[in-house]
């Protein structure tokens, strides 16, 4: 009973590998390394003391997927593989539809052929679009404001259609809020290539001197200090939510064969609160200046967490200080990510 983890060499996937291995599951990782370095999997082995089976392959290669599912005797899939940069998705939407939508369709076809009918899917709070109310409950209307978000919604719809067509399929759609942090060993973490788009990696690179200052996008939102508020969640909490979802699906205890659930803390922090928390954790000054609002940004976004607590018996436990401390520990131990550090 092996779990196939697509995109398992990436940021969230590598943390998920640790959590699943520590819970006693056998795993195989399939990743095309388009946004990852396989050193992450050596680190997973170092943390867990277990070897990680790895297949360098693309989810769009259906024949290869079928061979891997059969060879390892997989019973379930945790599906992280995909492209995730919002700006890039507006410049090259075809790459997003191909990787995310076509890739997931091929993965599902391979699963159907091999009789593997359980999947956890990485969705995003981006599917809620502009919040009509807060906190966001799972039945909040969905909409997409960019191609990336649209691929997530299309995949969610695909899963709901397949689940409705055949009750033997089991899907857990997990809508992440803002994953940050790193494993507390400092051996694995987020390793963005180029200029980071997201707040936490950017702050980190100001703290370690790679960037001169942070641009704070917008200072006149209707929030407590005028800057955008988000629900940041420690990546270790996030992947523990995946383990719980996997167990609920596998035990047949889910109320339906396709559920969508938020993974967030329920608490929002502003950009300036994040800056101050990171200063505390790193003992460094984070220089910043205000810049215009970023297109497509909402003022405030945070999760309603009751469904995750009820359905998964899961709740995020790590606080903002832990998120900043673990991020800083990872960066200090790996100043250039995985590229220049020994395996
Ligand atoms: P990541 O880029 O670190 O991980 C994705 C992994 O998938 C990478 O290792 C990449 O090499 C691999 N990959 C991409 N396309 C592939 C393909 N066609 N075939 C095989 N492997 C492929 O990103 P992450 O932050 O770990 O995100 C994982 C998932 O969670 C993504 O689906 C992302 O959209 C979703 N998500 C992430 C966030 C976030 O803030 N990080 C928020 C919401 C949802
Ligand atoms: C972004 C994506 C979202 C995706 C998520 C995870 C957009 C519009 N949204 O979410 O679809 O699911 O990343 O990949 O891109 N900020 C700054 N300066 C920076 C970077 C960010 O002030 O240099 C602010 C933003 O305006 C926002 C907050 O920090 O208020 C968080 O931004 P970010 O980390 O990019 O996450 P989201 O915008 O929530």
TrEMBL record:
Name the CDD domains on file.
UDP_G4E_1_SDR_e
- A Pfam match is Epimerase
The cross-references to SUPFAM superfamilies, in alphabetical order and at most eight, read: NAD(P)-binding Rossmann-fold domains
The NAD-dependent epimerase/dehydratase domain is annotated at: 3-256
Concerning InterPro entries, the annotation shows: Epimerase_deHydtase, NAD(P)-bd_dom_sf, UDP_G4E
Required cofactor(s): NAD(+)
This enzyme catalyses: UDP-alpha-D-glucose = UDP-alpha-D-galactose
Gene Ontology CC entries for this record = cytosol
- State if NAD is listed as a keyword: yes
> What is the protein's quaternary organization?
Homodimer.
Family the entry assigns: Belongs to the NAD(P)-dependent epimerase/dehydratase family.
| Designated name of the protein | UDP-glucose 4-epimerase
The organism of origin for this protein: Roseibium aggregatum
